[in-house]
Design goal:
Pfam families: PseudoU_synth_2. This is Pseudouridine synthase RsuA/RluA-like domain-containing protein. GO terms for molecular function: catalytic activity, acting on RNA; pseudouridine synthase activity; RNA binding. It comes from Vicingus serpentipes. It is built from eight helices and 16 strands. The chain is of the alpha+beta class. The chain folds into three domains: 89 residues, Pseudouridine synthase; 62 residues, Roll (Structural Genomics Hypothetical 15.5 Kd Protein In mrcA-pckA Intergenic Region, Chain A), CATH 3.10.290.10; 139 residues, Pseudouridine synthase. Strands 7, 8, 9, 10, 11, 12, 13, 14, 15 and 16 form a ten-stranded mixed β-sheet that branches. It has a four-stranded antiparallel β-sheet with strand order 1-6-3-4. Helix 1 packs across helix 4. The protein is globular. It starts with a helix and ends with a helix.
Length: 319
């Protein structure tokens, strides 16, 4: 059974006014233990993985039965091992604001296609739990099991495909993994490239930064992105680029452009990495000028392309 544009809009309105995360509640924070931390004391583990939080805070959480290893209360003497899942909870608080002005693009019995606004994370992470796309869709459509096929950063706008069946989700995911599906982004950047076409194959670390992002690393994983200059704005020293990522690394486009000295307009943290030392990865407002314009893949034995209109902020800043 399909979902119409009107049904989608009404269902979202019912669960988003007020936003589900506007009611104070503890936020759960889960962290998986990697093999390299085998045998670490629980306090030392958090001191290394979450360095911005003082050791005394983790001791306090343990004393208040608010730190768990595989759902069992931790002790100050506890050790962690690869594969363990640690959990702790914040004090009851409201979650940051999110934008729920989704544009309905397409829906049939297999997939749902939306134009994602910003900011809104795809799934619970960091400061966001109920205020995330997957959690809102669960509330709006409790009989559905939407499957995330590909991800966009919380501050990135544009087209996203959600699977309504395992078969459709697996089929499109496989095409993305095999690089037979194609994605196109638009980015407004600082600076004026001196070439119409350029690219980056700089490696990206698999390790998360303290803020939850990634960084350029000579010991990272391969990543390749192509860029084409669509238009330049000499007075503002900005350029609009068409971007084609040939791999799907976390924050790949943002990192490659910052590394090339063409940071995306509004990407404060990747322009100045010191920003993320004291601020979260997700910006509080719609300031990032990166838009997932289109995605193409094979569907029902034919090639299809879904595209998302460019946000008005791009049009305003191009004048």
């Amino acid at each position: 059974m399909t979902i119409t544009k009107e049904q989608f809009k009404l269902a979202l309105a019912k669960v988003c006014d007020p936003l589900p995360g506007s009611i104070p509640a503890p936020t759960p924070y889960k962290l998986a233990v990697k093999q390299k931390y085998n045998g670490f004391n629980i306090i030392d583990f958090f001191a290394v993985t979450v360095p911005m939080v003082a050791k005394e805070k983790w001791i306090e959480k343990i004393e208040n039965n608010n730190l768990f290893i595989d759902n069992k209360p931790a002790k100050i003497s506890s050790k962690v091992y690869g594969g363990n899942i640690t959990t702790h909870f914040s004090e009851p608080k409201t979650e940051p604001f999110i934008n729920t002005e989704f544009e309905f693009i397409f829906c049939d019995e297999n997939i749902l296609v939306l134009n994602k606004p910003a900011p809104i994370p795809m799934h619970p992470s960091g400061r966001f739990n109920k205020n995330s796309l997957t959690e809102i869709l669960k509330l709006a459509f409790p009989s559905e099991d939407f499957k995330i096929i590909h991800r966009l950063d919380a501050n990135t706008t544009g087209v996203i495909i959600l699977g309504r069946t395992n078969e459709s989700a697996n089929s499109i995911s496989k095409q993305l993994q095999e690089k037979t599906a194609k994605k196109q982004y638009l980015a407004l950047v600082e600076g004026l490239p001196n070439k119409k076409y350029f690219s980056s194959n700089t490696q990206i670390s698999l390790e998360k930064t303290p803020a939850g992002g990634r960084e350029i690393s000579n010991n990272g994983i391969d990543a390749y992105t192509e860029f084409e200059v669509i238009k330049t704005y000499s007075e503002k020293k900005r350029a609009l680029l068409s971007v084609t990522p040939h791999s799907g690394r976390t924050n790949q486009i943002r990192l490659h452009l910052a590394d090339l000295n063409f940071p995306i307009v509004g990407d404060i943290g990747y322009k100045d990495p010191n920003y993320f030392k004291n601020n979260p990865l997700t910006y509080s407002d719609d300031c990032l000028f990166l838009h997932a314009k289109a995605i193409s893949f094979k569907y029902k034995n034919k090639e299809v392309t879904f595209s998302a209109d460019l946000p008005t902020k791009f049009l305003i800043n191009q004048k």
